Amino acid sequence: MNHPLVSLTIDGIAVQAAPGSTILKAAQQAGIEIPTICYHDHCTANGLCRICVVEVSGARTLVPACVATVQDGMIIHTQSERVRRSRRTILEMLYSSVDLSEAPEIETLALVYGADSQRFPGAQRREPPLIDDNPMYIRDYAKCILCWRCVQVCAEDAQYTYALNFSGRGFETQISTFYHHPMPETTCVFCGQCVGVCPTGALKPKREWLLEKGYTPEAIMGLTRNERRGKKRREGLSH
Amino acid sequence: MEPSLDLSPIRSFLSEIAPQGRSALLPALHAAQDFYGYIPEPVALEIAQALQIPAADVFGVIEFYAMFHTHPVGKVIIHVCNDPACALAGADTVFKQLSRRAEYALETGEPISVTVEQSPCLGLCDHAPALLVQNFPATSAPEITWQELTTKTGRRPQTHVDGDLRLLTARCGKGHTTTLKAYQASGGYSALRKALTMTPEALIEEIKASGLVGRGGAAFPTGLKWESAARAEGTPKYVVCNADEAEPGTFKDRVLMEDDPHQVLEGMIIAAYAIGANKGYFYIRGEYLHAYHTISHALEEARTAGLLGSQILGSNFSFDIEIRRGAGAYVCGEETALFESIEGKRGFPRIKPPFPTTHGLFGKPTVINNVETLANVPLIIQWGAKEYRKLGTEKSPGPKLFCLSGDVQRPGLYEVPFGVSLRHLIFELGGGMRGESPFQAALVGGAAGTFATPEHLDTPLSFEGLRAAGLTLGSGVITVFDAQRDLRDVLYRLARFFADESCGKCYPCQIGTQRQYEIMERILNGQTRPGDAERLQDVGWTMTDASLCGLGQTAASAILSALKYWPHLFQPVSS
Ligand SMILES: Cc1cc2nc3c(=O)[nH]c(=O)nc-3n(C[C@H](O)[C@H](O)[C@H](O)COP(=O)(O)O)c2cc1C
Ligand code: SF4
Ligand code: SF4
Ligand code: FES
Ligand code: FES
């Protein structure tokens, strides 16, 4: 099937794109970079971070490029004052909320958009204690930007294990298991997919975390061996 | 597991509703909360298994809704409103007094444990300071004893209903619910009979010709919405009545449901006939328990009379309605979040497009309309579009309900033709200011609205008139403030409302509502920092421009309008 291409203008450049393609993809093809944070090629796009917003002529609000599809005749600006203000403020608000020290891509964006990491003095941060409850990975939600990737790969985007969901709502939202149970007591199969898609180091292989903390590889071997035995013992008891 | 936990009540409930699968989750959680006073883990697991939902998802849903608790709460729950209209009337003091009284009761071992909670607007703004006891309206008048209060034996507050017109409210404000018999005696359901003799296309044409636009806040033309759903591919189709009324300052839908439920049902049945739907959902705000009962009863009456069910009034058309209770989440009034909620999920708004008329409830073509919108339908069919258009203005035809509260003589529900002035509503119908202090401002359109100043008093209350003045109609709320009021307190409460109610899905609103709240809190406390006005502007415009749904897009509108009219309120006090 050969659908006619859609014609639109992005930052003054005439662009042709396949119908149904997102503004993000159409821009990429034309060599125009639109920043993204929550978007991931292998996860369902939910339009969460809104860093990819662009100005579409005639639209009341800005439009998220990662989910909005191209329409014939669209006139799009990806760097207007409105767009830049939103991107800068979103970055500043992220800095005021969580620890981004292990999110280099966001740090680069902050430089590009002139975001001040100290813009919101006295702001409440999300800094729950680190959770070290299994031998495979740690969960440090003080670094979590709520991109939902881990929840999604654990569910329909990949694994269909459904170990993860949310607690709270609004600013208080956190990724959580059933009634905050430790990972080994959930449906988690320790496939590690969540760790693989986490963009900020909130989910991290335990070994890497221990190495960072200065443990030697030998010491780590010993530690995790004991932990596995401990788990077996617990399971033996409850059966 | 707690040894004393008896799973049999939830099990027998689940055995009845399990065939509905995930969409029975909210009813199941309500039942569990009622049985156990909270939702214990083993009960949540039981529900997850019976409805075949991942356990973590069930937990996520419990956590989303304010009325579900993972830890025990009192046997009796008292909600005290802390939104603007009630704050003006001393709600904070009432909350403190009742909390102290509940603590005392606990210490002295009184038999019923009582939990007192602060709550967003309860839709009783005309009875400020508003209280709900076990989700039933109560009054905090000094002569009511603790015993009367906690056992709900005090009297129920009545909303004052008045106006230039009494069409939608013809049978409201009389102190009782209009029965099917009384509704029919005044011509009720004759519009349905007439509609059933028309083709769906002709019916839709009539609604289009009437110029009816939605009263839920988004002001979308109702006829176009119906037409789009009628033409959409895919079955089944659904009609949903949005009765999740929770916009601070709004109580019109509550009055329509409590006092004249059949008028709304008749509109809904006609909508279903027009688009070819056989199933409808009536989604009622969780806190509106009385409205839930009046609607349930009206549905029973209608079924018995053959007005609902198969082959309605002897025609080939069959339709029935199921009720869903919300559970304490303002965002679920957003149409797509409401669908998610009926489907048994966290109330996260969906990305639009696609729109509900093609991909709505369960992904099927759906018409979702506000209570007041549907209440207009029988009138239009009875009178004909031409006659209906004689009311109101060219661009805003018909009658409109306004919820008036705050510092006015006669707070209440007022029905007027579109186009009367703000002055007429506040000073003539509402009797003007309550005390000596003159009019300072009115919040028009609810928490998501903007301020009107004395210069705006002659603005016509119509979609186009308000828009030209930089105001919005929203859901028809007018909260009045006299010159003694510190508007910073109002703005602080609005900011807190949005921070509490943000769903957390998109970053601008998830973080922006929290930052906006923190800044308003320090401004209220006289601790404004240099640059706070600019911070509010950046946060406010970012939410307005970049948020995913209407909640975030309007969470700053009152504050941005105040920044325009009263910039000095946001400046640090120079020492
Ligand atoms: C945060 C939010 C809350 C809303 N709450 C309600 C509500 O309580 N009742 C309602 O009818 N519409 C509400 N709406 C508007 C609905 O999304 C939708 O536009 C409306 O139900 C459509 O019905 P109408 O066309 O008859 O107005 C809300 C919208 C948003 C963004
Ligand atoms: S833990 Fe990582 S992957 Fe999961 S939501 Fe947070 S940032 Fe995203
Ligand atoms: S605007 Fe607010 S309420 Fe709406 S999706 Fe975003 S976070 Fe949720
Ligand atoms: S990248 Fe588009 S919303 Fe996050
Ligand atoms: S009930 Fe308190 S403001 Fe509406």
From TrEMBL, chain B:
<dbReference type="Pfam" id="PF01257">
    <property type="entry name" value="2Fe-2S_thioredx"/>
</dbReference>
<dbReference type="InterPro" id="IPR019575">
    <property type="entry name" value="Nuop51_4Fe4S-bd"/>
</dbReference>
<keyword id="KW-0479">Metal-binding</keyword>
<dbReference type="Pfam" id="PF10589">
    <property type="entry name" value="NADH_4Fe-4S"/>
</dbReference>
<keyword id="KW-0004">4Fe-4S</keyword>
<dbReference type="Pfam" id="PF01512">
    <property type="entry name" value="Complex1_51K"/>
</dbReference>
<dbReference type="InterPro" id="IPR036249">
    <property type="entry name" value="Thioredoxin-like_sf"/>
</dbReference>
<dbReference type="GO" id="GO:0046872">
    <property type="term" value="F:metal ion binding"/>
</dbReference>
<feature type="domain" description="NADH-ubiquinone oxidoreductase 51kDa subunit iron-sulphur binding">
    <location>
        <begin position="488"/>
        <end position="533"/>
    </location>
</feature>
<dbReference type="InterPro" id="IPR041921">
    <property type="entry name" value="NuoE_N"/>
</dbReference>
<comment type="similarity">
    <text>Belongs to the complex I 51 kDa subunit family.</text>
</comment>
<dbReference type="InterPro" id="IPR011538">
    <property type="entry name" value="Nuo51_FMN-bd"/>
</dbReference>
<keyword id="KW-0408">Iron</keyword>
<dbReference type="GO" id="GO:0051539">
    <property type="term" value="F:4 iron, 4 sulfur cluster binding"/>
</dbReference>
<keyword id="KW-0411">Iron-sulfur</keyword>
<protein>
    <recommendedName>
        <fullName>NADH-ubiquinone oxidoreductase 51kDa subunit iron-sulphur binding domain-containing protein</fullName>
    </recommendedName>
</protein>
<dbReference type="InterPro" id="IPR037225">
    <property type="entry name" value="Nuo51_FMN-bd_sf"/>
</dbReference>
<dbReference type="InterPro" id="IPR037207">
    <property type="entry name" value="Nuop51_4Fe4S-bd_sf"/>
</dbReference>
